[in-house]
Design a protein that fits this description.
alpha+beta, 3-stranded antiparallel β-sheet, 8 helices, Pep_chain_release_fac_I
Length: 356
């Protein structure tokens, strides 16, 4: 472990010198890349320096304790601190997900439960929008298919960070655990007898791909245009501005009708398509390497639920990590940190165990 740290310390020092060179900043893309790597390595370097200093302090405290027993308690405190720093250092050295700093496209789809499921999809969308607002992220509704009662049959939203971010605090780093089937238990607005119903909605989270990351051959696309429609089938546009794109080699289909022009809808649909193809390519690479992410459910078609939202008990349960709390109302208002952190901690522990 410590040989790896010494190499990273050398890389960190080299990056510091390069970033101090004004010529490097003439290429903004290269400067951002170097700055990102420097930010990733800084916690490793600072933790290692603290770990090493604590080792020296323990040696000094032991010498003093041999002459004065009152220093014995200080030795124990320093030993506990060093154990904590050792654990933190091991965790920092676990390979990071290369997509952690990426922005994402988050999709919510109504599932079993009809109109109630669409209303729940709307609740989930609001939860994610409020969470993003709390963290200072920027959100953009790319496409939405509203239901008659104000929910969503399906909706896609782009979530982006603003400015620089700390390692592990990017949008994908936090929201990648949200993918999967979300189940709700409550008395629907459409239920007159007061009975509790169970329905579900699916969430799909994919890192947003740059054009250079995913090469799409125009000949592999079938583009269909049609007239946009809203709830109840009422016409929204009088022209064929909605766009549906089919990627023929993979069968992936995306559509967009939110924008007023066909060109704008096509551009938004291509954003979604690039992200889905990037996610599919990453998934395939992971399968080949036998290192698929355990915490991210890639499709919304799976019957396996990841989380239950129980309204009568004000309870939220994440079934993957055993998390449970009774503040569902606050979670739905965007206070998702504790839920997500439980997934982050479980994922980190699993990676750490695998690395040992």
């Amino acid at each position: 472990m410590f040989e790896a740290v010494e190499e990273l310390i050398g890389e960190h020092a080299d990056l510091e010198k390069r970033l101090a060179d004004p010529a490097v900043h003439a290429d903004q893309a290269e400067a951002r890349r170097l700055g990102k790597r420097y930010a990733e390595l800084t916690p490793v370097v600072s933790t290692f320096r603290s770990w090493r200093q604590t080792g020296d302090d323990i040696g000094t405290a032991r010498e003093l304790a041999a002459e004065d027993p009152e220093f014995a308690a200080e030795v124990k405190d320093l030993e506990r601190l060093r154990e904590q720093l050792t654990d933190r250092l091991r965790l920092l050295l676990v390979p990071r997900d290369p997509s952690d700093d990426k922005d994402v496209i988050l999709e919510v789809k109504a599932g079993e439960g009809g109109e109630e499921s669409a209303l729940f999809a709307g609740d989930l969308l609001r939860m994610y929008l409020r969470y993003a607002e709390r963290l200072g992220w920027k959100t953009e509704i790319i496409d939405a298919n509203a239901s008659d009662l104000g929910g969503y049959k399906d909706v896609q939203v782009a979530v982006k960070t603003r400015g620089s971010i700390e390692p592990g605090q990017g949008v994908w780093a936090r929201l990648k655990y949200e993918g999967g089937v979300h189940r709700v238990q409550r008395v629907p607005a459409t239920e007159s007898a007061g009975r509790i119903h169970t329905s579900a909605a699916g969430v799909l989270v994919t890192p947003e791909a740059d054009e250079v990351e995913v090469e799409i051959n125009a000949g592999d696309l079938r583009v269909d245009v049609y007239r946009s429609s809203g709830p109840g089938g009422q016409s929204v546009n009088t022209t064929d501005s909605a766009v549906r794109i089919t990627h023929l080699p993979t069968g992936v289909v995306v559509s967009c009708q939110n924008e007023k022009s066909q060109l704008q809808n096509k551009e938004q649909a291509m954003r979604i398509l690039r992200s889905r193809l990037l996610a599919a390519a990453q998934e395939e690479a992971e399968r080949e390497a036998s290192d698929a992410r355990r915490s991210q459910v890639r499709t919304v078609d799976r019957s396996e639920r990841i989380r239950t939202y129980n309204f009568p008990e004000n309870r939220i349960s994440d079934h993957r990590v055993g998390f449970k709390s009774y503040n569902l109302d606050q979670v739905l208002d965007g206070e998702l940190d504790a839920v997500i952190q439980a997934c982050v901690d479980a994922d980190s522990a699993a990676k750490l165990a695998a690395a040992q």
